[in-house]
Each structure stands twice: as C-alpha cells, then as structure tokens.
Write a structure and sequence with these properties.
The complex is a heterodimer of chains A (114) and B (111). Chain A is an all-beta fold and 114 residues long. Chain A is built from no helices and 11 strands. Helices cover 0% and strands 50% of the residues of chain A. In chain B, strands 2, 4, 5, 9, 10 and 11 form a 6-stranded mixed sheet that branches. Chain B has a 5-stranded antiparallel sheet with strand order 1-3-8-7-6, with no helix packed on it. With 111 residues, chain B is mostly beta strands. The N and C termini of chain B lie far apart (38 Å). Classes of the chains: A mainly beta (114), B mainly beta (111).
Chain lengths: 114, 111
C-alpha cells in the first residue's frame, strides 16, 4: 500500500507567478484535501475534491484552484502568488463514504514566494 | 475565528513522566476529534481519535480524554519518551467532513 506522495518537495517562486503542486493519493482512497500550514500555525483547509469535483472550500480566494483526476490524484494551482502564500502545502487523502475518518497526509510541499 | 485552540505552544517534560497536551473547541456540533503528531519535514501522522459518545479512548501509552460540557480534550502520554518529541495537533471533524486543526503544541521530552 503506497502512501500519499507530493511533488515537488520544495520550490521558490517570485511574487506574481503561478505554481502547480501535485499529489498522488493513497491506494484505495477517493478523496483529496489540501491544507496550507503557515509557520507556527496549524494546517488550514483550502478545499477538498471527491469524484473530480470540488466538495467543500475553506476561506481562500479564487486564485487557489484545484483539480482531481480519474486516478484520484490531484493538483493545487495558485495564481498571482503573494508573499503570504509562503507556507507548507499538505495534501491528505481519505476514503469517503465508509465512515472512516482516516486521513493520510503527504510530507508536503514547502513553497517560498520572494 | 479559531474553532479549535491549543493555547500552549510548547511543553517540556522529563523522560518517563506524563505529558499532557490540551485542546479546546468552540463548536458544540463537533462530534469527532483526532490527535496528529508531526515531525519536521514530514506530514502529520494520525495518533488517536475519540468520538463524542465517549469520554476516554486509550491506545498503549496514549490516552485521549473528552469533556464535552467544557468543550475540552486532552492527550496524555505515559511514560513519555524522547522519540515522542514532535509537534502535536488537535483536530475536529466538522459537518462537511473536513479537519479543523488547532495551532499545535511542540512537545520536547528530555532524557
């Protein structure tokens, strides 16, 4: 059973640029959630994808968008990067529908915006 | 609006003693809570959970207590070991099924 993998592990972008982060969900999981963890804070929910559709969104602007693919992998896209977007971005997969709250997290992508 | 709060950013404990990590929540609709442990450069890993129909759940050295009237839960680690040194996050599941995290408490267990 493979876990959740995220790529890249680190990247540096310039303010105003766009970035795409990728996540492969754990085998058997059909739901992917994305979280932003700023320094010294807990992870904050960005959005969740189930059956390739957004299924819940946190308090993040529209320049944060995502996709889920038929194999349940997912992308997080952020446009017009701002300095405050610098954070650890975590992806978590789960198996929605079986009453199990077993979220498995990836190791995250550390994004630095300069 | 911080619905899940961990008011202690850090905790230092001697090896072999008890570690108690606290968490408060504001939303009385939360009915499932989890604790996650996070090492640097790794994602959070699930530790233990509790449903609101219980007031205690135990798994080896880890016990979680839930006081619904006080909207408070705590994680007890006995005995604490140096390998337990990490950041611990308390989280609640909201009605939409997403995790609401606290700010985290950094536990340091000294030999």
């Amino acid at each position: 059973e493979t876990g959740v993998t995220q790529s890249p592990t680190h990247l540096i972008k310039t303010r105003g640029q766009q970035v795409t982060l990728r996540c492969s969900s754990q085998s058997g999981h059909n739901t992917v959630s994305w979280y932003q963890q700023a320094l010294g804070q807990g992870p904050q929910f960005i959005f969740q994808y189930y059956r390739e559709e957004e299924n819940g969104r946190g308090n993040f602007p529209p320049r944060f968008s995502g996709l889920q693919f038929p194999n349940y992998s997912s992308e997080l896209n952020v446009n017009a990067l701002e300095l405050d977007d610098s954070a650890l971005y975590l992806c978590a997969s789960s198996a929605r529908g079986n009453g199990n709250y077993g979220y498995t997290f990836g190791s995250g992508t550390r994004l630095t915006v300069v | 609006d911080q619905q899940v709060k961990q008011n202690s950013p850090s905790l230092s404990v001697q090896e072999g003693r008890i570690s108690i990590l606290n968490c408060d929540y504001t939303n009385s609709m939360f009915d499932y809570f989890l604790w996650y442990k996070k090492y640097p450069a790794e994602g959070p890993t699930f530790l233990i959970s509790i449903s609101s129909i219980k007031d205690k759940n135990e798994d080896g050295r880890f016990t979680v207590f839930l006081n619904k009237s006080a909207k408070h839960l705590s994680l007890h680690i006995v005995p604490s070991q140096p390998g337990d040194s990490a950041v611990y996050f308390c989280a609640a599941i909201d009605q939409g099924g997403k995790l609401i995290f606290g700010q985290g408490t950094e536990l340091s267990v000294k030999p």
